[in-house]
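Retry 2 of 3 after timeout on previous attempt. Resubmitting structure tokens to design endpoint.
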């Protein structure tokens, strides 16, 4: 896989922004806005209401951003905007700030890759990770929301799980149990790209009470194992810089690109 294609895979799968939404329009739908890929949800969740993959010219950028703001203002929804290496124009981040977006530093990520699908460190003992159905995962939505934090709601995670079920068998949900714990203490998603090569480690979190015990590493290892079984050769992850990215680096992932997250609130001041 070329470096350009690798960057493209990282960008288009970040929070599923480039993933088709067919069969899920009751909760999440595509918004036809010029020069961007955009989606909106029935829920006021910035992980669901999202814009990215911008291809705006220097001349059209401000009007394009204004159209995005107008749409989400009309829906009274929070929205996040992913700015990656292919986003144009080059000063898109500065323009977003001028239109009332704020840089969400807690959610900025490194796009990272692992080739081949082998960890630099072994998965720890005492952690069990298992792929589960969307229905089984739904029974633990509250745990999943507590583990992820950042204002994520159980309802929002439930919507993402229903999207995952609609994408099956390309998408998979995993739960993790620590030895001695009767209930799951972590969760993760995986997306098996239709190219037959790219495994996307798409979201993962551990309860605060069980962090720094290897749960995250065990969930990475299980998803890589599934990827190898399917014949996939490349794993990518959009890792939050202050939390999961350092762990991924220790496991052998390398930084490929930066992904910045900008957040707009419907009560933000207008340009």
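Retry 2 succeeded. Sequence:
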């Amino acid at each position: 896989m070329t470096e350009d294609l690798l960057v493209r895979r990282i960008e288009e799968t970040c929070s599923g922004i480039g993933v088709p939404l067919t069969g899920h329009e009751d909760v999440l739908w595509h918004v036809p806005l010029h020069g961007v890929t955009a989606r909106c949800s029935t829920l006021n969740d910035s992980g669901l209401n999202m814009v990215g993959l911008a291809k705006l010219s220097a001349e059209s950028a401000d009007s394009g951003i204004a159209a995005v703001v107008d749409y989400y203002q009309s829906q009274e929804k929070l929205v996040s905007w992913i700015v990656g290496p292919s986003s144009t124009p080059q000063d898109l981040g500065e323009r977003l700030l001028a239109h009332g977006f704020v840089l969400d530093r807690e959610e900025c990520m490194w796009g990272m890759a692992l080739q081949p699908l082998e960890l630099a460190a072994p998965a720890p003992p005492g952690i069990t990770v298992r792929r589960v159905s969307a229905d089984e995962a739904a029974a633990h939505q509250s745990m999943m929301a507590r583990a992820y934090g950042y204002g994520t709601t159980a309802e929002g995670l439930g919507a993402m799980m229903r999207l995952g079920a609609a994408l099956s068998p390309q998408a998979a949900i995993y739960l993790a149990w620590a030895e001695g714990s009767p209930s799951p203490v972590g969760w993760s998603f995986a997306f098996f790209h239709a190219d037959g090569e790219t495994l996307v480690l798409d979201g993962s979190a551990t309860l605060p009470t069980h962090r720094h015990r290897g749960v995250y590493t065990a969930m990475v290892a299980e998803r890589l194992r599934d990827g190898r079984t399917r014949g996939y050769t490349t794993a990518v992850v959009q890792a939050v810089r202050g939390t999961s990215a350092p762990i991924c680096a220790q496991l052998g992932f390398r930084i490929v690109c930066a992904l910045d997250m900008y957040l707009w609130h419907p009560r933000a001041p207008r340009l």
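Attempt log closed. The chain has eight helices and twelve strands.
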